[in-house]
Automatic annotation (TrEMBL), chain A:
Enzyme class: oxidoreductase
Name of encoding gene: pcaH
Domain of life per record: Bacteria
Organism annotation: Denitrobaculum tricleocarpae
Family that this chain belongs to: Belongs to the intradiol ring-cleavage dioxygenase family.
This protein's UniProt keywords: Dioxygenase, Oxidoreductase
Molecular function terms from GO: ferric iron binding; protocatechuate 3,4-dioxygenase activity
Keyword Oxidoreductase: yes
GO biological process: 3,4-dihydroxybenzoate catabolic process
Pfam family, one: Dioxygenase_C
Record protein name field: Protocatechuate 3,4-dioxygenase subunit beta
EC number(s) reported in the record: 1.13.11.3
Domain Intradiol ring-cleavage dioxygenases per the UniProt entry, residue ranges: 79-107
TrEMBL record, chain B:
Matching InterPro entries: Intradiol_dOase_C, Intradiol_dOase_core, Intradiol_RC_Dioxygenase, Protocat_dOase_a
Chain ranges of the Intradiol ring-cleavage dioxygenases domain: 48-76
Protein name: Protocatechuate 3,4-dioxygenase subunit alpha
PROSITE patterns assigned: INTRADIOL_DIOXYGENAS
Keywords: Dioxygenase, Oxidoreductase
Principal EC category: oxidoreductase
Tree of life domain: Bacteria
Enzyme Commission number(s) from the entry: 1.13.11.3
Keyword Oxidoreductase: yes
Family annotation (SUPFAM superfamilies): Aromatic compound dioxygenase
C-alpha cells in the first residue's frame, strides 16, 4: 500500500477522562479497563467521505430550515470558524453536523421533557461543510440554557453540539461549543470534565467581524482535529 | 503553526434529530443509515445486531453506533485506499439504539473482505452515548473467519479472556446470516476498546 500515513494520537491532555464522577452518567458507561493500543492501518486512516454534496440548500440556515409559518423566536446568530489539523493545515470540504436546543432551552427531540415551549419555526438540526480554506459558517438562534437531572438545580450552559469526520475514522470528533461569559460554565460537570488548560478551546469568541449588520451577532469557533504523522508508518 | 486538539464532549441524549433523523422519524435527510448496502451490492449480505449494556447490565437506549468497513473485495471507499473504491458502497453506517423496543442496534450490510495487510476481515466501530465524554473505538470480527482470526495481529495482542468480546457470532438459522455483537461498557465481559 502506498502513502500510508497515520494520524497523531488523541491527546489525553486535551480530552476529558471517560470517568468524570461529577458527571454522574459516566459512572456506569465509561470503560474501566485501559484502552488497548491499536497500530493504525488502512482501516483507521480511511473514513467516510462527506462534503458539500451532503449539504442541502437550507441545511446551514437553522433560522429557515424548520420554519413552518414564520421566523423562529430568539436571538439570531452566525457561527463561523475554521477546521484545522494540529499542524494548522486547513481541512477543506469536510462535513459538520450541528444540533441544539431552541431559544427557550427545549430540544425538538421526543425524549426532551423540559417544560419550556417548542418553537414551531425552529428545528435545531443542520449541517454545513468547510470551503477550500477550511472555513464554515451557519446561521441559527442562540440556544437557551436548560435544567438536567445530574444534581439538584443543575443547568446546562448554552451550547451547540458539533459532529465532524475529518479525513479519517481516526479524526472523528463530537464536541460542544459554548458561549463566552456564560456563568453556568463554572458549574457544568460536562464542561468542567475537560482538562482546565483545554476548556477555553470549547468557548467561542464574540466576533464583530462575523456579525451581519442589522441581522445577527457573530461568533467565531475554530475546531482542531488530529494531525498527520510526519513519517510514514510501518506496514 | 501548531494547534491543540479541540476537546471531545458527550453526544448527549438528544442527538437523534440531528444525526439519525430518518431512523427516528424527524424531518431532515439522513447522511447515513443502518442500511449500508443496497440489494444489488456485490458480496454476502449480512445483518449485524446487538445491544449495549452499562455497568449494571442494563441496555442502553440512547447510544449511537457508527461502522466503517471495506467492501466484499476488501477495499475502502476512500482516497487513501489506492486500489480504487467501489463507488456504490460507502461502507459507512450509523444507527441509534432508541427506536427498537429491546434497544437493539442493527446494520444491513455486506460481509467485508480482507484488506490484504494480514488482518482478518473486520468492521470498525465507534460508540457514542450520553455519559461518555469521548467516543470509544472497537472492532467487529466475524466468528466464521476462524483461520483469518487466528492469524490477525490485533486479535493476537488481546488477552485470551477478552478476545471473544470482539468476535460477532454468526447465526445461520434465519432467512439470512446474522452476526450478533453485544457491547459491554463495563464488567467481566467489558468489550475491548482501542486507543488508535
Amino acid at each position: 500500500m502506498t502513502d500510508k500515513l497515520g494520524f497523531k494520537p488523541r491527546n489525553w491532555n486535551s480530552h476529558p477522562a471517560y470517568l468524570s464522577p461529577d458527571y454522574k452518567s459516566t459512572a456506569l458507561r465509561s470503560p474501566t479497563k485501559p484502552l488497548v493500543p491499536l497500530a493504525q492501518s488502512l482501516s483507521e486512516i480511511t473514513g467516510p467521505v462527506y462534503g458539500h454534496e451532503s449539504v442541502g440548500p437550507l441545511d446551514a440556515d437553522l433560522t429557515r430550515n424548520g420554519a413552518t409559518a414564520g421566523e423562529p423566536l430568539g436571538e439570531r446568530i452566525i457561527v463561523t470558524g475554521r477546521v484545522l489539523d494540529e499542524d494548522g493545515r486547513a481541512l477543506p470540504n469536510t462535513l459538520i453536523e450541528v444540533w441544539q436546543a431552541n431559544a427557550a432551552g427545549r430540544y425538538v427531540h421526543a425524549a426532551d421533557q423540559h417544560d419550556a415551549p417548542l418553537d414551531p419555526n425552529f428545528f435545531g438540526g443542520g449541517r454545513c461543510a468547510t470551503n477550500a480554506e477550511g472555513w464554515y459558517a451557519f446561521k441559527t438562534i442562540k440556544p437557551g440554557a436548560y435544567p438536567w437531572g445530574n444534581h439538584l438545580n443543575a443547568w446546562r450552559p448554552n451550547h451547540i453540539h458539533f459532529s465532524l469526520f475529518g479525513p479519517s475514522f481516526a479524526t472523528r470528533l463530537i464536541t460542544q461549543m459554548y458561549f463566552p461569559g456564560d456563568p453556568l460554565l463554572d458549574l457544568d460537570p460536562i464542561f468542567l470534565a475537560t482538562p482546565e488548560a483545554a476548556r477555553g478551546r470549547l468557548v467561542a469568541d464574540f466576533s464583530l467581524e462575523a456579525t451581519e449588520p442589522g441581522v445577527a451577532l457573530g461568533y467565531r469557533f475554530d475546531i482542531v482535529l488530529r494531525g498527520r504523522n510526519e513519517t510514514p508508518m510501518e506496514d | 503553526m501548531t494547534q491543540k486538539q479541540t476537546p471531545s464532549q458527550t453526544i448527549g441524549p438528544f442527538f437523534a434529530y440531528g444525526l439519525t433523523p430518518e431512523q427516528y422519524g424527524y424531518n431532515l435527510t439522513s447522511i447515513a443509515a443502518p442500511d449500508v448496502a443496497n440489494k444489488d451490492q456485490a458480496g454476502e449480505h449480512i445483518r449485524i445486531e446487538g445491544q449495549i449494556f452499562d455497568g449494571e447490565g442494563v441496555t442502553v437506549g440512547d447510544a449511537m453506533i457508527e461502522i466503517w468497513q471495506a467492501d466484499a473485495a476488501g477495499r475502502y471507499a476512500h482516497p487513501a485506499d489506492s486500489r480504487g473504491s467501489n463507488a456504490d458502497f460507502t461502507g459507512f453506517g450509523r444507527v441509534g439504539t432508541g427506536t427498537d423496543p429491546e434497544r437493539r442496534f442493527f446494520f444491513e450490510t455486506i460481509k467485508p473482505g480482507a484488506v490484504g495487510d494480514g488482518q482478518a476481515p473486520h468492521i470498525n466501530v465507534i460508540v457514542f452515548m450520553r455519559g461518555m465524554l469521548n467516543h470509544a473505538y472497537t472492532r467487529i470480527y466475524l466468528s466464521d473467519e476462524v483461520e483469518a482470526n487466528a492469524a490477525d495481529p490485533v486479535l493476537a495482542g488481546i488477552p485470551d479472556h477478552r478476545r471473544g468480546t470482539l468476535i460477532a457470532k454468526r447465526d445461520d438459522s434465519g432467512a439470512g446470516p446474522v452476526y450478533r455483537f453485544d457491547i459491554h461498557m463495563q464488567g467481566a465481559d467489558e468489550t475491548v476498546f482501542f486507543d488508535l
